[in-house]
Write a structure and sequence with these properties.
Number of strands: 28
Helix content: 25-40%
Number of helices: 22
Largest sheet: 7 strands, mixed
Bound molecules: ligand MGD, iron/sulfur cluster, molybdenum atom
Structural class: alpha/beta
Shape: globular
CATH class of the largest domain: Alpha Beta
Strand order of the largest sheet: 5-4-18-17-16-6-7
CATH architecture of the largest domain: 3-Layer(aba) Sandwich
Radius of gyration: 25 Å
Strand content: 15-25%
Length: about 725
């Protein structure tokens, strides 16, 4: 007998747009996904992943029983274990006891510096709040980070420096109210497809003018009034030259500058040198296009800037983002509807995981860990002796693995991340994973990183648990359980509570913090007690429509756009800028710039989409290369090519397309068979510690079909 049909409203587990989903369930099985026409975020629209990409939940390679590695791994020669025979099934008590024993053993021997955790932007606010609490309260370690470091870290640092808050200033759907909007470093139609629909509507129905600044001829170029085909890494010259033109032509907003900003003089002086001619020489963009873009942006009634990873994922990512912020402050195009500074956040819950404290320098609510008052506040909340919390900033994602050595990090807990696909320079990453003494993986699958684990804890998928995600425009939305977890899988928050209690007992620190919750709503309420932006968020208030933070009180309607009267830091601060070239520039040996990123059908390391029928839609890695470059190298469309950087080499097929501008090739990082991150450099931005994923250099040569499989250089040829 089939159980009766039911419809469960929830939030998409893929991207930061946060589309509302209706899961149609029969017999604990999703047979259809729709979205209501009145959904505020997506108006009934869904992209291919939201509509069809959920079947990873049922994939037979999903692991739904705790597993323990049969042989004890030794630091220095740890290996990946994809083969089922290398693991044995365990019950929850045994797996949790084992994980707690080993973690506590290492902590008691080597202290908090040996402990590190990756939180998860796919998991809920409640899951992330608890995992950072476990590491801070029990292991006294701030080595807590997540993929935000690899993502918008530089946007966050720059926005904190300039305005004092890091989130999108406006609501994505407000783009239809803009007269002009600039889109840069954002392939929005593949990566935030529903926001792209709203942008297309803004252009086609509302007559908004779009300026695209991007090294690839992305789809949105077809809708653009101006397209600036920038060379990778030349953002500071181009956006500063726009500022130069705005200043020279008196198109700035003196009243806004006087009333709401500081440091204008120093900034204006530093813009002198950024003439359009100078910017053209570095960026390859025609100077007249830069002048036109400056006039268009500055003179419109309402202009907004939208950006994604082309800006932050650079060794000068902070400066890139500051060059955009300077433009908004200079023209006063912020603090009103249809204006603003809008970094499009990537993961479904990267905004929320950051808000919840899954970061090494901040408690929940962006409260710095090295501030005495903040530490005391959380000591009180978590029932910790005065002075007990660690006041030192922890290590970032990019620093944690580099710190794996005797006297450094020894034990790593990974909840829902995949550094062995997502971190730069994977050959280096692999060595560091091998050197760890103990690894816990908590995921739906044994991915390339989980294969290094000693113990695997099977987590429930989004449709199997309750909680909240916070989307890119700060909207806290409900995630609802549609059916019980498959097999023995359990919700992340429950797993964390159970392991935390065991650790607490072994440490002899009873009643540290609190680990007994009957429902995740209690966890969010605990966090809201100390995080003013979430103070008013209650599950009861977000039943139908989510609320945009800040939500300071329970009767507050939420905050669609920020900075109406002032900035969180008071005045907006201008920053003088210098041009700094990329860490690597093309030369005779490595003549091409490699840009990496995404395609519509896939997600990051592919753990979810490659276990879904999205993989049939886009089954293989392809390198985009310009027709002229391909002709020079005798590369044919669909032919295999070998791509080599200073760090490694991969073989994949070429896609010859004018979407790639000359001199720049593009490889998506979703495919283990040709993992783009074998090639990328681990050079980072000094302030934000974000890697330069968008501009390594490579050489390219035609290859043979046989090399395609033989070339896989790591032991990741299979999946568990
Ligand atoms: N289908 C799908 N959607 C996703 C994801 C996914 O894996 N798959 N991931 C999500 C996540 S976590 C994120 S963070 C977002 C990322 O969203 P995007 O940032 O849109 O994703 P990328 O594919 O990395 O595209 C980067 C864009 O920056 C441009 N670019 C590269 N170098 C430069 C440069 O030097 N200057 C400028 N101005 N532009 C440059 C590229 O040409 C490209 O258009 O996507 C989210 N959405
Ligand atoms: N070359 C290159 N590399 C990049 C980038 C790039 O542009 N170029 N972009 C970077 C960016 S922006 C990002 S955000 C990172 C992403 O990097 P990661 O976060 O490491 O990658 P994901 O593949 O999204 O990993 C998510 C994991 O969470 C699991 N998961 C899903 N739902 C749940 C859940 O509810 N609970 C638990 N416990 N697990 C769950 C999935 O199965 C998957 O294994 O990659 C970065 N790496
Ligand atoms: S646009 Fe993003 S949130 Fe919406 S359905 Fe697609 S992946 Fe999901
Ligand atoms: Mo991201």
């Amino acid at each position: 007998m089939l159980k009766a049909e039911k419809i469960v409203s929830t939030t998409c587990p893929y991207c930061g747009v946060g589309c509302n989903l209706q899961l149609h369930i029969q017999d604990d099985f999703i047979y259809r996904v729709t979205s209501p026409f009145d959904s505020v975020v997506n108006h009934g629209n869904l992209c291919v992943k939201g509509r069809f990409g959920y079947d990873y939940i049922y994939n037979k390679q999903r692991v739904t029983t705790p597993l323990i590695r049969k042989t004890r791994q030794v630091a220095g020669s740890r290996t990946q274990a994809f083969d089922r025979s290398e693991w044995r099934e365990a019950n929850w008590d045994e797996a949790l006891d084992y994980a707690a024993d080993r973690l506590v053993e290492i902590y008691q021997r080597d202290g908090s510096k040996a402990m590190a955790v990756y939180c998860c932007a796919k998991a809920t606010n409640e899951d992330n709040y608890l995992l950072q609490k476990m590491y801070r309260a029990l292991f006294r370690s701030n080595n807590v980070d997540h993929c935000t470091r690899l993502c918008h870290a530089a946007s966050v640092v720059a926005l904190q420096m300039a305005v004092g808050s890091a989130a999108m200033s406006n609501t994505a759907a407000e783009v239809v109210e803009s007269d002009v909007f600039m889109l840069t470093g954002s392939n929005v139609s593949e990566n935030h497809p529903i926001i792209a629909l709203q942008m297309k509507k803004a252009v086609q129905k509302h007559g908004a003018k779009l300026i695209v600044v991007d090294p690839r001829r992305i789809e949105m170029v077809n809708y653009a009034a101006l397209y600036l085909p920038i060379k990778p890494g030349s953002d500071v010259p181009v956006f500063s030259a726009m500022a130069h033109v705005i200043l020279k032509e008196n198109l700035h907003n003196p009243q806004f500058i006087a009333e709401r900003t500081e440091n204008f003089e120093a900034f204006a002086a530093s813009m002198e040198k950024f003439t359009p001619e100078y910017a053209e020489a570095i960026s390859g963009v025609d100077r007249q296009l830069i002048i036109d873009a400056a006039r268009m942006y500055a003179t419109a009634g309402k202009s907004a800037i939208y950006w994604a990873l082309g800006i932050p994922e650079s060794t000068h990512g902070t400066a890139n983002a500051l060059s955009l912020i300077n433009l908004a402050l200079l023209t006063g195009q912020i603090g009103r509807r249809g204006t603003g500074l809008n970094p499009l956040r990537g993961q479904n819950n990267v905004q929320g995981a950051s808000d919840s404290g899954a970061m090494p320098w901040h408690y929940p609510g962006y409260q710095t860990v090295d501030n005495e008052q903040n530490a005391q506040r959380w000591e009180k909340t978590w029932n910790i002796e005065p002075g007990g919390l660690n006041r030192q900033r922890g290590l970032t994602t990019t620093e944690i693995l580099s710190a794996v050595h005797p006297g450094g990090v020894q034990a790593l807990y990974i909840m829902g991340e995949n550094p062995m696909m997502s971190e730069p320079n994977l050959n280096h990453t692999r060595k560091k994973m091998e050197e760890l003494e103990f690894v816990v993986a908590q995921d739906l699958f044994i991915n390339e990183s989980g294969a290094f684990a000693d113990v695997f804890l099977p987590a429930a998928a989004f449709a199997e648990k309750d909680g909240t995600f916070t989307n890119t425009d700060r909207r806290v939305q409900r995630v609802r359980q549609a059916f019980p977890p498959r097999g023995n899988a359990r919700a992340d928050w429950q797993i964390i509570c159970d392991i935390a209690k065991r650790i607490e007992k072994r440490l002899g620190r009873p009643n540290t913090a609190f680990w007994d919750y009957s429902h995740p709503s209690e966890i969010l309420a605990e966090m809201g007690g100390n995080v003013p932006d979430y103070a008013g968020v209650r599950y009861a208030n977000i039943e139908k429509v989510g609320l945009q933070t800040p939500v300071p009180t329970e009767d507050h309607p939420g905050t669609p756009y920020l900075y109406t009267k002032d900035f969180p830091r008071g005045r907006g601060k201008f920053h003088p800028l210098e041009y700094v070239p990329n860490a690597e520039m093309p030369d005779d040996e490595y003549p091409f710039v490699l840009s990496t990123g995404r395609v519509l059908e896939h997600w990051h390391g592919g753990t979810m989409t490659r276990h879904s029928w999205m993989d049939d839609l886009f089954p293989e890695a392809l390198m985009e290369i310009n027709p002229a470059d391909a002709a020079n190298l005798a590369i044919r469309d669909g032919g295999p090519v070998r791509v080599t950087s200073r760090r490694g080499s991969i073989v994949l097929r070429a896609k010859v397309t004018p979407k790639a501008n000359p001199g720049v090739v593009f490889i998506p990082f979703h495919f283990w068979e040709a993992a783009a991150n074998i090639l990328t450099t681990d050079a980072v931005d000094p302030q934000a510690k974000i890697p330069e994923y968008k501009a390594g250099v490579v050489r390219i040569a035609p290859a043979f079909d046989e090399e395609m499989t033989a070339a896989v250089p790591m032991q990741i040829r299979g999946r568990y």
